[in-house]
């Protein structure tokens, strides 16, 4: 498939192409540097804290607070990506700052345990759940509103967000005001989608399923259907969830999974919107770009709506 890349996203999209040419190496280095860059706005604080994770282990969170926040500000738990096996808080600094300033809200990033031979699902989800509980219990301490919490995550982080939303529903816990799943993985059978076959040159991960990120996240395949908290597309019933924003990218092998999940949410009566980024790649909003800014504007507006921050727009009819 010929790629007609959105101008300015060349490094980002081409960083996913297979190969070890000098040009592709330069593209990946440039994209990596761009993703890690950020500017902390005047008056915003960024503070790391250590809390207890899902197994009682020490776990780091990062709290972003814009200047001049009102009392009891809404809060967003942000879950980074990295294919379940990589990534850290640092790769989402720019994204967290963008969300925090646009809502405005307190954004809390969680440094959940990454998957490997010894550590795998459900431990990463348990860590995210522990962080969700922590921000509820410590809302007054950090200046937040324990009743207005949203979720945002990209790639594997989006999968964890969607899984956490299902877990909270099933256990009758506080429903997130909005769950934003950005270029997430919803199924393990990725090869069945047209987008995977159409953009095979952008495929992420090895051909050997036993070595893939999904298998590592699950702790290996054992013949049983994985938990739908791990891969939400496997859930038999999506009804009763809170509002969702599903973000997809045209040049992403995961594209069709996002479209299918959004359609299922809508068919189950879940308030849902989907934003399809045109001519961009997987998790395109990690690349500095005006179109990324527009995407963050949309995310910020969606959170404002679900947090009740736009009620002043209502008119008497």
Could you characterize the architecture of this molecule?
It is built from ten helices and eight strands. It has 317 residues and is of the alpha/beta class. An eight-stranded mixed sheet has the order 1-2-4-3-5-6-7-8, with helices on both faces. It is globular. The relative contact order is 0.15.
Strand and helix map with partners:
Layout: H1 10-14, H2 22-36, E1 45-52, E2 58-65, E3 73-79, H3 93-102, E4 106-110, H4 123-137, H5 139-142, E5 144-154, H6 156-170, E6 178-182, H7 194-198, H8 213-218, E7 243-251, H9 255-267, E8 272-281, H10 290-306
Parallel strand pairs: 3-4, 3-5, 5-6, 6-7, 7-8
Antiparallel strand pairs: 1-2, 2-4
Helix pairs in contact: 3-10, 4-6
Count of distinct strands: 8
Order of helices and strands: HHEEEHEHHEHEHHEHEH
Give the N-terminus to C-terminus distance in angstroms: 51 Å
Structural class: alpha/beta
Shape assignment:
globular
Fraction in helix: 25-40%
Strand order of the largest sheet: 1-2-4-3-5-6-7-8
**If you compute it from the alpha carbons, what radius of gyration comes out, rounded to the nearest whole angstrom?**
19 Å
Q: What low-confidence regions span 5 or more consecutive residues with pLDDT below 50?
A: none
- Taken as a percent bin, the fraction of beta residues is 15-25%
Number of helices: 10
Described by strand count, sense and barrel closure, the largest sheet is: 8 strands, mixed
């Amino acid at each position: 498939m010929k790629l007609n890349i959105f101008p300015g996203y060349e490094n980002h999209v081409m960083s996913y192409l297979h190969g070890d040419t000098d040009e592709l190496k330069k593209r990946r280095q440039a994209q990596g540097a761009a993703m890690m860059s950020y500017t902390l706005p005047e008056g915003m604080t960024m503070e790391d804290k250590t809390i207890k994770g899902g197994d009682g282990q020490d776990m780091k969170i990062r709290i972003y607070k814009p200047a001049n926040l009102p009392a009891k500000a809404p809060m967003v738990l942000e879950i980074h990506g990295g294919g379940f096996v990589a990534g850290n808080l640092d790769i989402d600094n720019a994204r967290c700052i963008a969300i925090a300033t646009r809502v405005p809200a307190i954004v809390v990033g969680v440094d959940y345990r990454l998957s490997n031979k010894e550590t795998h699902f459900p431990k990463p989800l348990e860590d995210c759940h522990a962080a969700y509980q922590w921000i509820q219990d410590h809302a007054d301490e950090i200046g937040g509103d324990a009743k207005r919490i949203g979720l945002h995550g990209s790639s594997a982080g989006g999968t964890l967000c969607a899984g956490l939303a299902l877990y909270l529903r099933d256990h009758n816990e506080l429903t997130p005001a909005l769950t934003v799943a950005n270029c997430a993985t919803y199924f393990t059978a990725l090869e069945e989608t047209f987008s995977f076959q159409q953009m095979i040159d952008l495929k992420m991960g090895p051909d050997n399923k036993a070595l893939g990120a999904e298998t590592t996240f699950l702790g290996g395949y054992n013949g049983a259907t994985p938990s739908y908290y791990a891969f939400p597309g496997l859930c038999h019933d999506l009804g009763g969830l809170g509002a969702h924003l599903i973000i997809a990218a045209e040049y992403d092998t995961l594209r069709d999974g996002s479209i299918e999940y959004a359609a299922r949410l809508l068919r189950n009566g879940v308030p849902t919107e989907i934003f399809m980024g045109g001519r961009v790649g997987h998790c395109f909003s990690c690349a500095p770009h005006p179109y990324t800014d527009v995407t963050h504007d949309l995310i910020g507006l969606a959170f404002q709506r679900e947090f009740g921050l736009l009620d002043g727009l209502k008119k008497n009819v």
